[in-house]
Amino acid sequence: MDINYKKFKVIVREGYESICAVVAEIIAGQIATQPDSVLGLATGSTPLGVYKKLVGTDFSRVTCFNLDEYHPIERTNHQSYHYFMMQNLFNRVNINPDNINIPSGEAVDFAAECDAYEEKIAASGGIDLQLLGIGPCGHVGFNEPAAIFPKQTHYVALDSSTIEANSRFFESTDKVPKHAITMGVGTIFSARHILLMATGSHKADIVEKVVLGDIDPQVSGSILQLHPNVTLAMDAAAAVKLLQSL
Ligand code: F6R
């Protein structure tokens, strides 16, 4: 099912595999029409099936910027987003390693790391297509509930709901890093096309809130209501509440 709602192009497919296939096709299509595309990428459970389907796509001229990384964390740590991206995508496609960009969880000078990341995105010409997941608090990237929308890449204390949700990857909740470096809401908003993905029944409430709720920095994904070019890709379980309310 494909519908337009306000500025959102909403795509719903029955199950996880079928929505991953659609999202992978959109990304592969972007690369086919513009081989030197700049992609913004996400980690987490949601895009795993998409990355699997992108194996075989020609990444030779593509540049990637990841949304975020825990801090502190060594890049070799199996829970780092650096490790996740290498395992699940970058080691499996022909991307030039010089074109892989992920905030450093090893940075000592956070402010300098954040500024350099912003500058590098700008120097690349900006992000053509930004893939996003959505967190339990409605965050995009690690833009946690806040009083204002953070503009640029910044160092952030993770929300307790994020730590709780991500503890599934760690031995215990107290092993989850308490901080991260993340693109800002402004950084994300500057992408020319946003591809927001949500799968599973546990995302149904937050999807409805992000799309239909107030535009509120407590729910950073709500800013996407103002973006001119957002594709919202969901499986039926994540879409159920939103579709009932439209
Ligand atoms: C990941 C990121 C996060 C996740 C979100 C959903 O790089 O920035 O915003 O997209 O927390 O995570 P999953 O997909 O694991 O439910």
3D structure, described in words:
This protein is an alpha/beta fold and 246 residues long. The chain has one domain: Rossmann fold. The protein is 32% helix and 20% strand. The chain is built from 8 helices and 11 strands. Helix 2 links the parallel strand 3 and strand 4. Helix 1 packs across helix 2 and helix 7 crosses helix 8. The protein binds fructose -6-phosphate. Fructose -6-phosphate binds next to loops.
Summarize the structure.
This protein is an alpha/beta fold.
- Tally of contiguous helical segments: 8
Low-confidence spans: pLDDT under 50, at least 5 residues?
none
Number of domains: 1
Instruction: Report how far the terminal alpha carbons are from each other.
Output: 14 Å
Which structural class do the helices and strands define? alpha/beta
- CATH architecture designation: 3-Layer(aba) Sandwich
What is the residue-mean pLDDT, rounded to a whole number? 97
**How many beta strands in the DSSP annotation?**
11
Characterize the largest beta sheet: strand count, sense, and whether it forms a barrel.
8 strands, mixed
Whole-number radius of gyration? Answer: 17 Å
Series of secondary-structure elements, N-terminal to C-terminal:
EEHEHEEHEHEEHEHEHEH
